[in-house]
Amino acid sequence: MFYVQIVLYKRVMSSYRAFIEENDEKLFEVTYYHKPQRWLDNTVDSANQIMNVQNWSPEIKYLNNSHNAISDEISNIPNDKGGVYMFYIKGICLPFIENYIVYIGRCKLTDSQNIRKRAKEYFNDERPMIKTMFRRWKEHLYYRYYQDTDNNNIDSNEVKLIRTILPPFNEVIPDRIEVQQTVAAFN
After folding, report:
1. 159 phi and psi, to 5 degrees?
2. What pLDDT score was predicted for residue 70?
3. CATH number listed for the domain at residues 58-171
4. How far apart are CA 108 and CA 183, in angstroms?
5. Cβ atoms 107, 148 nearer than 8 A
6. Which alpha helices (H) appear in the chain, and where do they start and end?
7. How far is the C-alpha of 186 from the C-alpha of 183, rounded, in Å?
8. In this predicted model, which residue has the larger pLDDT, 2 or 80?
9. Phi, psi dihedral angles at 156 (to 5 degrees)
10. What does pTM read for this prediction?
11. What's the rounded mean pLDDT across residues 106-124?
12. CB 107 within 8 A of CB 114
C-alpha cells in the first residue's frame, strides 16, 4: 500500500511539471523570499503610516491599453510630494490577491524631483533590469505609491521595505551597515 501511494504521488507531480515548458517559464520566473524573521528584523515601525494600505495610492496600471505609453493615471500623481513606490505584477486569475512586488523605489521631494516626475521617468529608463520588467510584464504591470514629504522617512522606509521584501528587480539591496560617529581612542 505504501509503495502504491508513492508511485501515485510521483505520477501526479510529473503530470504537473509536464504542463510547464522549462525554458519559457524560466524567463518569467520571479522568486519570492518568504522568511518571516527577515520581515520582523526589517519591518517598518508599526506606528509608521506606511503599513496602512489606506495610506497608499489606489493601484495604477502603469501603461496604457496599447502598452506603448504611460497611462493617463500616472499624470494624476501629485507633483508636490515625494515618497516610496512599487511596481508589481498583477495576475488575472485571482487579481484581488495575485500580486507580486518586483521593484521598490523612492523619490525624495526636491526642487527638481517629485513622485509624479519619477514615475514618468521609468518609461524611458535604460537600466537592463527595468527594461526586462517592462518587456516581460508590460500588460500586467501596476504601480502604487506612498506619498511623503519627509526625506529622512522616505529613505528609511525604502531601505526597510527592500530589505524585507527583496524585490527581484532591485539591483541593490541596502546592507545592514550602520554608520556611527567616530570616537577618539586616545585623548
Report:
1. -60, -45
2. 96
3. 3.40.1440.10
4. 31
5. no
6. 2-18, 22-27, 36-42, 115-121, 128-137, 151-165
7. 9
8. 80
9. -60, -45
10. 0.78
11. 96
12. yes
Grid coordinates of 33: 523570499
Sheet strand arrangement including 99-107 = 60-61, 141-148, 82-90, 99-107
Measuring CA to CA, how many Å separate 72 from each of 61, 69, 77?
9, 9, 10
Contact 102, 88 (CB under 8 A): yes
Distance CA 184, CA 1 (A): 73
> Which element (helix H / strand E) includes 123?
none
Listed residue (32, 55, 57) closest to 143, CA to CA: 57
How far apart are alpha carbons 92 and 127 in whole angstroms?
A: 27
Please write the tens of the pLDDT for every residue from 37-56.
Answer: 777 776 656 556 888 899 99
Domain ranges of the chain: 58-171
From the list 19, 173, 3, the residue with the least C-alpha distance to 103 is 173
Q: Does position 147 have pLDDT exceeding 90, yes or no?
A: yes
64 against 38, higher pLDDT: 64
SS3 1: coil
